[in-house]
Design a protein that fits this description.
The complex is a heterotrimer of chains A (about 300), B (about 290) and C (about 300).
Chain A: E1 3-12, E2 15-25, E3 28-33, H1 40-48, E4 55-60, E5 63-64, H2 69-75, E6 76-79, H3 91-101, H4 106-119, H5 135-147, E7 153-157, H6 165-179, E8 185-189, H7 193-199, E9 202-207, E10 210-216, H8 217-220, E11 223-233, H9 237-245, E12 249-252, E13 258-261, H10 269-277, E14 281-289, H11 292-300
Parallel strand pairs in A: 3-8, 3-9, 6-7, 7-8
Antiparallel strand pairs in A: 1-2, 1-4, 4-5, 9-10, 11-13, 11-14, 12-13
Chain B: H1 23-36, H2 40-46, H3 49-62, H4 74-77, H5 82-89, H6 92-105, H7 108-115, H8 119-123, H9 129-147, H10 149-163, H11 167-171, H12 175-199, H13 204-229, H14 239-250, H15 261-285
Helix pairs in contact in B: 1-9, 2-6, 3-10, 5-12, 6-9, 6-13, 7-13, 9-10, 9-12, 10-12, 12-13, 12-14, 12-15, 14-15
Chain C: E1 5-14, E2 17-27, E3 30-35, H1 42-49, E4 57-62, E5 65-66, H2 71-76, E6 77-80, H3 92-102, H4 107-120, H5 136-148, E7 154-158, H6 166-181, E8 185-189, H7 193-199, E9 202-207, E10 210-216, H8 217-223, E11 229-234, H9 238-245, E12 251-257, E13 262-267, H10 270-283, E14 290-292, H11 298-306
Parallel strand pairs in C: 3-8, 3-9, 6-7, 7-8
Antiparallel strand pairs in C: 1-2, 1-4, 4-5, 9-10, 11-13, 11-14, 12-13
The chains are: A alpha/beta (about 300), B mainly alpha (about 290), C alpha/beta (about 300).
């Protein structure tokens, strides 16, 4: 069920922000990408029911975008990008408060707040004032308040912004886990492509107010069977000339990866044979896929 | 048979409330946060002092014989009539305490939400702008009501109790209505005043100072304008004077200023209306995600 | 070769709070990444080597001269801070020309340089708009612009990619690599490890005010020999592969991933393992689709050293 948008148009005055957006998203984790100013936030606002589209309709979780915004917001959890909290409260009070505002009865909200805080890893510190939390903890708190009312759709806006590498890892693990829970769709807006690659199976790329690409990540990237990336131990030179004689093109990149472009009928075992012959150890062997970054660049049409 | 609760995320099997009573948690939370402010409890208790004094006054006036030694001229001044109630509800000291309390505990009602960007958290939920504003208003209504309506009614009850008869009540049957309506006016006015200023800034301390300063300055403004124009209408510039003028009107007492009291009422109500318009706009502006 | 930036026994604290302690470091030309958890001391270190902060103990030197209070050196330094610090009413153009004039350039040269660098960061079209109206990504780019406008030899960049969309990130990374190619010295601090890996393999890891590790990522990985290496092999015959290798004494641990059709081996002896593996690939009919080292990346090194 998820989200269905048909032919959405939206303008801020004379500036057209969204044009002919048609989209259908289901369960699972979906990445929302696009250059700054492409219309991502406008799209998010429309899906959350803050803005009414000029044209077109749609529904989120079965509720109409224009007429049933209140119901949409009952079922959606939003984790904003900015740091946001209410000072002077501890995290249980805060989370329960948010739950109550979503319509949960008070006792339920409190019970659920404890549960959710343990889930995001704030169990030990849940009675402390949120003012004293570190950046990583505040981020988890944002996630907790988005989950307290058990939403069916979770919007995460730059969930790993401002976190140090340890914190990023932890949040990504949490989100990855939530993304696999049945009954929850997760929509992630992020500029960090590595995050999207690690969690999402589908992406939507928006550019200049229109959908530039949508689909499963694997389908969108071209799987190029003819490029292999290797890491080897040993001297490259002779190996390289052997390969080139066999019709391949060999490149060495900065981080010491050897890229081998092979001709169509090339048996990759040859690579191992030639390596053995040159007394090289093959320590990494991957059939290359173009990265999300290349896809993004291609789709957004620059470079 | 044993079951194990699995690790990981669990769905919530509960039901969401259908009836939107979203403003109540907001009010409750606002009141709690106000009490957390330093000195707030102290000042709040202090603000009940007039109520205690007036209650004692009623007691003394009923038992005048026992207090004959204090009685020189007391009979005249301790007359418990509608003017007595009016004097409590429009006491300078009471207004001052209300302003102080609000500067401390009410200044951050909306400004803190702007500053810490909590507004987007509120509006991602199924609450309307009205719910939010009413919820915040409830906090001011609570504190002002506790200091005006409740003591006002209690003083009336004390009077009835101590005088032992309904004579007083029958003499002035409209008194209870006056108490209620005047208190409501105070609640609405102070709510508008505080929420307006709170919605105009992100800085709670700044708002607190302005709440206090504006109240004082409005009196000074009256003074200056009076000096220049020598007109009784200069009172229309002062918050305190307007409130006192309306109080006199509601309680059928002698008007402190020489113009019809409903003019002051109109000034106050227009202010409330304009505040509401501004507050609505200000909250809308930040409602959205960046 | 003489190090460009040299830190000797640097220590700095703020009252009771520790900034950095006994940091001794040499930074050569090229790109060096400065990593560490929040509060580790990265900003303190950067402030000291850019001359904004005086160390309590020790010295920071650039080109052999002390940095503190040394105006000649500042000319050679470009700093892109993490925080937003702007004069909002100025336009992008005014901001840059203003800063450039502080370096002593003539008016006309200030203008030329400003225009050039604005083109490089692609803010040329909006140069006459006030900084106040710039979006997050644009503010980031103008920060980068002011760091490079005077063509410094040394660039210190604190989280230069934050707030930028993927294409802008690519452009900035490309720019940084170009600087490296011109022989400049660049120190970059970032939290997003995959992005750091795309730029360089020289890292300095700071934790709790001290240097935890320094050098090439792979070299460091080798050094962490107490921690066995993980090697993941994807193959339709993954269990068979495990069966064959299990008896070997250099295999410490084997785990399977059914969904993925892969097996992960943990070993202390990569040499012996890979020799055997390479032989197996060629001798048997076991088809091997992929060989990767899941923990041979910066995140894993970071987690291990910072002690998760």
């Amino acid at each position: 069920m998820g989200v269905e948008l048909k032919n959405i148009h939206f303008s801020y005055g004379r500036v057209k922000a969204l044009n002919r957006i048609t989209l259908a998203l289901d369960e699972g984790a979906i990445g929302l990408l696009g250059p700054n100013g492409a219309g991502k936030t406008t799209l998010l606002k429309i899906m959350l029911g803050f803005l009414k589209p000029d044209q077109g309709d749609g529904q989120v979780l079965g509720y109409d975008l224009r007429k049933e915004q209140k119901f949409i917001r009952q079922l959606v959890g939003y984790m904003p990008e900015d740091e946001c909290f209410i000072p002077g409260m501890d995290s249980v009070t805060f989370t329960a408060y948010m739950g109550e505002l979503s319509g949960m009865p008070r006792q339920e909200a409190i019970k659920r707040a404890h549960e959710v805080l343990f889930y995001v890893g704030l169990g030990e510190s849940r009675y402390r004032l949120v003012d004293t939390y570190s950046a990583g903890m505040k981020q988890r708190l944002k996630l907790a308040q988005a989950l307290v009312h058990d939403p069916k759709l979770l919007f995460l806006d730059e969930p790993t912004a401002n976190l140090d590498p340890g914190g990023r890892q932890e949040i990504l693990e949490l989100i990855g886990e939530i993304a696999t829970v049945r009954g929850i769709s997760v929509l992630i807006c992020s500029h960090i492509l590595a995050d999207i690659e690690s969690i999402c199976d589908k992406v939507v790329i928006i550019n200049k107010g229109e959908i530039a690409a949508v689909g499963r990540l694997e389908d969108l990237r071209m799987i190029n069977y003819r490029l292999y990336e290797l890491k080897i131990k040993g001297e490259l030179e002779n190996f390289r000339s052997n390969l080139e004689k066999a019709g391949c093109r060999v490149e060495e990149t900065e981080d010491r990866i050897v890229k081998i472009y092979t001709p169509p009928d090339f048996n990759h075992l040859e690579i191992f044979r030639l390596a053995a012959r040159n007394k090289l150890q093959v320590r990494q062997f991957v059939r290359s896929q173009s990265s999300l970054e290349d896809l993004f660049a291609k789709v957004v049409g620059v470079d | 048979m044993a079951t194990i609760r699995e690790k990981g995320y669990h769905h919530w099997e509960g039901q969401l409330l259908e009836k939107g009573r979203a403003f109540w948690p907001i009010t409750r939370t606002g009141i709690k946060l106000a009490f957390q402010r330093k000195y707030f409890k102290f000042i709040f208790s202090g603000a009940f002092l007039p109520a205690v004094v007036y209650a004692a006054g009623i007691y003394i006036s009923e038992r005048l014989e026992d207090f004959k030694f204090m009685a020189q001229g007391a009979e005249r001044t301790l007359q418990v009539d509608p003017g007595f109630f009016k004097s409590y509800l429009s006491l300078d000291f009471l207004f001052f305490m209300i302003i102080l309390l609000m500067a401390l505990g009410g200044a951050g009602l909306i400004s803190d939400d702007f500053r810490h960007k909590a507004v987007q958290l509120y509006f991602a939920r199924p609450i309307t702008k009205l719910d939010y504003i009413l919820g915040k208003a409830g906090v001011v209504v609570f504190f002002v009501g506790m200091l005006t309506l409740i003591p006002g009614l209690i003083l009336l009850i004390i009077k009835l109790l101590f005088s032992g008869s309904f004579k007083f009540f029958l003499q002035y049957p409209w008194l209870i209505v006056s108490i209620i309506f005047y208190s409501i006016l105070l609640m609405v006015f102070f709510t508008s005043f505080v929420l307006l200023l709170s919605s105009l800034s992100k800085n709670r301390r700044y708002v607190g100072v302005v709440i206090f300063a504006l109240y004082i300055l409005s009196d000074i403004a009256q003074g200056i304008i009076y000096v220049i124009f020598r007109s009784p209408y200069s009172a229309l510039f002062s918050i305190k004077s307007n409130l006192k003028q309306v109080a006199a009107g509601f309680f059928m007492d002698k008007l402190p200023y020489a113009y019809p009291w409903y003019l002051s009422l109109i000034v106050l109500l227009v202010f409330c209306f304009l505040s509401y318009v501004v507050i609505k706009r200000k909250v809308r502006g930040v409602e959205v995600i960046r | 070769m003489r190090a460009v930036i040299e830190a000797r026994d640097l220590s700095r604290w703020y009252g009771n709070v520790l900034g950095i302690s006994e940091v001794t470091l040499e930074i050569q030309p090229g790109i060096t990444a400065l990593l560490g958890p929040n509060g580790a001391g990265k900003s303190t270190f950067m402030k000291i080597i850019t001359g904004q902060l005086k160390p309590n103990i020790g010295e920071a030197m650039i080109y052999g001269e002390r940095v503190w209070n040394n105006r000649r050196i500042f000319r050679q330094l470009g700093f892109c801070p993490e925080a937003d610090a702007f004069y909002e009413e100025l336009t992008g153009f005014e901001f840059l020309t203003g800063l450039l004039s502080l370096y002593g350039f003539r008016q006309s040269e200030c203008r030329e340089r400003a225009e050039h660098v604005l083109k490089v960061v692609e803010l040329y079209d909006v140069r006459h708009r006030q900084v106040r109206s710039y979006s997050r990504g644009m503010r980031q780019r103008i920060k980068v612009a002011q760091a490079i406008a005077h063509d410094p030899e040394i660039l210190i960049l604190d989280e230069p990619l934050s707030g930028l969309d993927p294409l802008s990130k690519r452009r900035v990374i490309k720019l940084i690599k170009e600087f490296k190619a011109h022989g400049k010295t660049i120190v970059v601090s970032s939290h997003v490890l995959p992005e750091v890996e795309a730029m360089t393999s020289e890292i300095v890891l700071i934790h709790q005010g001290k240097i935890l590790a320094r050098g090439d990522i792979y070299f460091i990985r080798e050094l962490i020999d107490t921690h066995p290496h993980m090697i993941r092999i994807k193959s339709p015959a993954f269990r068979e592969l495990a069966r064959i290798l299990a008896p070997e004494d250099y295999i410490l641990n084997i785990s399977f991933n059914q969904e993925d059709q892969s097996v992960i081996f943990e070993t202390h002896h990569r040499d012996r393992f890979f020799n055997r593996l390479n032989d197996l690939v060629l001798e048997s009919d076991l088809k091997v689709d992929e060989i990767t080292s899941p923990d041979d990346n910066l995140q894993a090194i970071f987690d291990y050293l910072v002690g998760k």
